[in-house]
Structure formats: structure tokens, C-alpha cells
Backbone:
């Protein structure tokens, strides 16, 4: 009996707060880099040189964080790592607009008008589908859709953690696909093209080369994801119970039926008036936003990068104002809609009312800021150590050592890239290493570079949702704990990974079936592009 009790207490002690878990991971990375440095852990691998259209060898060694220089880096770059952490700025910008929209009541009315009549399955499908296609524009879905989904599910009297999980799962596990070409194409195609020209000097990879398979995959993943979420994950999260505050006040206000009816009618009138005004203003804003990405019209193209020669690069290129400013524009949309609704519906009377009303929604995000800080240090230090890059390089070298090709090589490549993705999460960083190995080998087996590129996208998205090295995993943990009613038992990194594990397993199998099925049937993956050459 005593042993069982001690065992339970021991397990309870190990249920660390996610902040503590990230701090422990930082210590492990520092010590581990020192150990690997003692053994001169390094690797040499090939990358493609886009300018010369040839392979270039790179040798990467461990950066010892457990050293004088390493500790200098840790102290001197803590602020830089935090400020440069992509989720931080996006999260803060998005939070302001959403907070105003929530505080004004605009989100409530929006929910009543759009989502209230949807049944549970349809709502989850809509959330996952929108989250899946949001990867068209980088990671905006993580900072916008996750909080909104949580709010919608809470308003529907369901556990808001289901909404958080659905939005995160769609964004993370569907990151490799969308309903049209986006920023990911502009990142991957240069490496795919260069790697393919090692075999065929005139090979061309178009921006539309994956569009057919992406559209179908988006729908399939959303349907399967809805089933996983509703049948497997939602039951484990349980029902949501709000803690009611009890008051001992004996002061009551007696309102007559006529006065109560008049108040209700007045509120309904103000609500409708506010919603109509907010709808008109937000529609004008959306039209302006669309006009900003149309070239060639008077005063249009505000968000395009005219230094690029093609429209898709102007809108999705590395220096695109559309990409860099999209989160800000979405935040402005919610902020303007919230302000107009708030003042027209008389929820707000002065600017001070706006600021005061936003205190509570923004205060809830305080814990996420602490999480973002420690996570930024962990991810920044891990990248600096080069551990992930070296592991990916070693795995790429292993892949290059296999002489067989065809579908078996493709499956092996998927497994190897999946393993590497736990340590090196950047899609572009991995493809730079794997493209010169994978593309030529598959071309010799008559498998097209475009199909190889899609395989990379699919596999890359498989593990995004269960690795703490994925930058936006911390947003997921943060919102889970905002809605976690058991304050004494916060959801840890391990707990968040456990929630997403069924999704990871089933979606990985789904991705595999999509890829194999498409290859066997031989359907086009884009205009004039097939799985085989």
C-alpha cells in the first residue's frame, strides 16, 4: 500500500507545468550539446546550389552550449530569441483585434448569426477545413483560428478545448496542403527545380504543379479529422464546467415584466443595429483588402512586392507585404468590426470603455506570454546547437545509401523525413537537405519531382502537432491551459502530445493512403503533371 502511495505521489510530482517543462528541456539541450561536442558530433551532407545548379557539400558541427561561448550566447541572445520568435509578434497583434471584438460582444453576435445553427460535426468540419487551408498564408491560423474556435465552442456550451484542438490539428497536420498555391510553393520549388536539373537540365516545376492533389487532400483530411476529433479526442476532454462565483449579498433589484421586456427589446434593437453597421464597415475593409492585392488598377496593389516578376511571387514571395501584413490586416478586421459594433450598440460610450473592456480578454493571455518566452529560448538554443540539422543530414545520407527506387524508396523516404521532422521542423530547411537526395533518386525510378515535393509537404505536416520543437505548439498548450478548469493540474507538454497522438497516428495513415492511392491510380497532381514522369 505504501509503495502504491509513493508511486502515485511520484507521478504527481512529474506532472510539470509546461513552463517548467520547457526550462527542463533547455537544460537538457545545453548539457546534451556539451556531451555531443566532446565526441566531435558532426556530419557532411549535400545541399542544392540554386545559382550553379549543382550539389554543394556542407559540414555541420555541434555548437557547444555548455561552454564559455555557449553560455555567452545564452545570456546575450535571450532577448533576441524572444523578439525574433515568430509566434510572439503574430500572437500579440492578433490578440488585440480579437480582444476588442470579444469585449464589444461582436464575436457573440457573429456566433449567433453564423455558427449557432451548425451541428457539432459540421462545426468541427468547418473549423478543421478553414484551419487546413489557412496554411495558404503561413501560420496565421494558429494565432487567429485557435482563440476564435475556443470562443465559439464555449458559446455553444461545449468544451472550448475541443475547438482549440480542432483548430490546431487543422493548422498543424494540414500544413502541407491547401485549396490553392501559397507561400510554401515559393519556398520549396527552387530546391525542387534545382535538384531535378541534376538529372534533366531543362526540367521546370510550376507553381500549380500540386494544386489538384492539394484540393482533394484538404477535403479528405478535414473529413477524417472531424471523425477523429468528435469520436476519439472530444470524449477524452469531457464536458466543460464553469466555476460559479457565489455571493452572500442580500441586495436585489426588482424589475417589472414591462421594464424587463423593454430592456430586452432595446438590447435586441441595438444588437441588430450594431451588427448591420459592423457588417457594412467590415465588408468595405474586405473590399479594400482585396483591392490591395490586385495589380494594375488605380491605387491598387498596396500589398504586392513589385520587385518580383510574377504575380504569385509578388503576393507570396519572401518580401511580400501581403504575407508579412496578413495577420495585422486580420487583426484590424476584428478590431474595426468590434469598435463599430461596440459604439453603435452602445456597449462602448468612450475610448476608456474600450480599453477597460479589453483588460479581461487580454489578461487571460498573460500565461501564454511566459510560455512563449521559455519556448523561444528552448527552440532558439536547440537550433543554435545544430543538433536537428545534423540529425537531418545523417538521415539524408542514410537515404542516399539505398540503391533501390520506386514506391518502396518513396515509403522509406517518408519514414526518414518523418523522423527528421521531430528535430528539424522547418519545411524549407529540411527540403534543402533532402531534395538533392530524394528528387534525383525518384526521377531515376520515373517518379516526378513534383510528386516528390508533395510527399515532402505531406510528411512534414504529419508530426507538426506532436513535437514541442514546433514553434506554434506553444500556442496550442497555452490555450489548452486557458480553458483548463483544473488549475492545480495544468496540461503539460506531455499531456498536449497525448491529446494529439490519435490524430497524429490516423492522419499519418490517411496521408500515406492518399499518396499511395494517387500514385497507383496515376491521377494528375496538377495541370499536366502526374506522379510519374
Residues:
Amino acid at each position: 500500500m505504501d509503495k502504491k502511495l509513493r508511486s502515485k505521489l511520484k507521478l504527481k510530482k512529474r506532472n510539470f507545468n509546461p513552463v517548467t517543462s520547457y526550462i527542463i528541456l533547455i537544460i537538457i539541450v545545453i548539457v546534451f550539446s556539451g556531451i555531443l561536442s566532446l565526441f566531435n558530433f558532426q556530419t557532411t551532407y549535400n545541399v542544392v546550389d540554386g545559382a550553379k545548379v549543382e550539389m554543394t557539400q556542407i559540414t555541420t558541427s555541434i555548437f557547444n552550449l555548455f561552454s564559455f561561448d555557449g553560455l555567452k550566447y545564452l545570456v546575450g541572445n535571450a532577448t533576441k530569441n524572444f523578439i525574433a520568435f515568430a509566434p510572439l509578434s503574430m500572437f500579440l497583434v492578433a490578440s488585440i483585434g480579437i480582444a476588442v471584438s470579444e469585449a464589444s460582444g461582436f464575436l457573440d453576435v457573429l456566433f449567433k448569426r453564423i455558427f449557432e445553427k451548425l451541428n457539432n460535426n459540421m462545426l468541427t468540419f468547418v473549423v478543421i477545413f478553414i484551419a487546413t487551408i489557412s496554411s495558404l498564408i503561413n501560420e496565421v491560423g494558429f494565432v487567429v483560428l485557435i482563440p476564435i474556435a475556443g470562443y465559439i465552442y464555449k458559446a455553444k456550451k461545449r468544451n472550448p478545448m475541443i475547438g482549440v484542438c480542432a483548430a490546431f490539428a487543422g493548422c498543424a497536420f494540414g500544413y502541407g496542403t491547401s485549396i490553392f498555391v501559397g507561400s510554401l510553393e515559393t519556398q520549396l520549388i527552387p530546391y525542387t527545380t534545382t535538384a531535378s536539373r541534376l538529372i534533366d537540365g531543362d526540367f521546370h516545376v510550376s507553381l500549380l504543379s500540386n494544386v489538384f492533389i492539394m484540393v482533394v487532400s484538404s477535403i479528405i483530411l478535414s473529413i477524417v479529422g472531424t471523425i477523429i476529433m468528435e469520436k476519439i479526442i472530444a470524449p477524452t476532454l469531457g464536458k466543460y464546467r464553469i466555476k460559479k462565483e457565489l455571493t452572500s449579498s442580500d441586495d436585489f433589484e426588482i424589475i417589472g415584466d414591462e421594464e424587463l421586456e423593454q430592456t430586452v427589446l432595446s438590447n435586441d434593437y441595438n444588437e441588430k443595429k450594431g451588427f448591420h453597421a459592423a457588417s457594412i464597415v467590415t465588408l468595405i475593409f474586405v473590399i479594400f483588402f482585396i483591392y490591395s492585392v490586385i495589380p494594375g488598377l488605380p491605387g491598387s496593389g498596396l500589398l504586392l512586392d513589385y520587385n518580383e516578376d510574377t504575380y504569385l511571387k509578388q503576393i507570396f514571395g519572401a518580401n511580400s507585404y501581403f504575407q508579412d501584413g496578413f495577420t495585422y490586416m486580420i487583426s484590424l478586421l476584428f478590431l474595426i468590426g468590434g469598435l463599430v459594433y461596440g459604439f453603435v450598440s452602445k456597449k462602448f460610450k468612450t475610448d476608456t470603455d474600450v480599453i477597460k473592456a479589453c483588460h479581461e480578454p487580454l489578461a487571460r493571455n498573460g500565461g501564454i506570454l511566459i510560455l512563449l518566452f521559455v519556448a523561444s529560448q528552448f527552440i532558439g538554443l536547440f537550433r543554435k546547437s545544430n543538433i536537428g540539422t545534423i540529425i537531418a543530414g545523417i538521415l539524408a545520407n542514410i537515404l542516399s545509401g539505398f540503391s533501390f527506387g520506386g514506391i518502396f524508396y518513396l515509403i522509406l523516404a517518408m519514414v526518414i523525413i518523418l523522423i527528421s521532422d521531430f528535430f528539424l521542423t522547418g519545411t524549407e530547411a529540411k527540403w534543402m537537405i533532402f531534395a538533392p537526395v530524394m528528387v534525383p533518386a525518384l526521377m531515376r525510378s520515373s517518379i516526378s519531382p513534383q510528386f516528390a515535393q508533395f510527399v515532402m509537404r505531406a510528411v512534414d505536416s504529419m508530426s507538426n502537432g506532436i513535437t514541442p520543437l514546433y514553434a506554434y505548439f506553444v500556442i496550442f498548450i497555452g490555450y489548452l491551459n486557458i480553458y483548463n478548469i483544473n488549475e492545480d493540474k495544468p496540461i503539460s507538454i506531455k499531456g498536449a502530445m497525448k491529446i494529439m497522438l490519435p490524430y497524429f497516428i490516423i492522419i499519418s495513415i490517411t496521408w500515406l493512403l492518399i499518396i499511395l492511392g494517387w500514385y497507383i491510380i496515376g491521377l494528375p497532381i496538377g495541370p499536366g503533371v502526374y506522379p510519374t514522369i
In short: Residues 63-242+259-521 form one domain. The chain has one domain: 63-242+259-521.
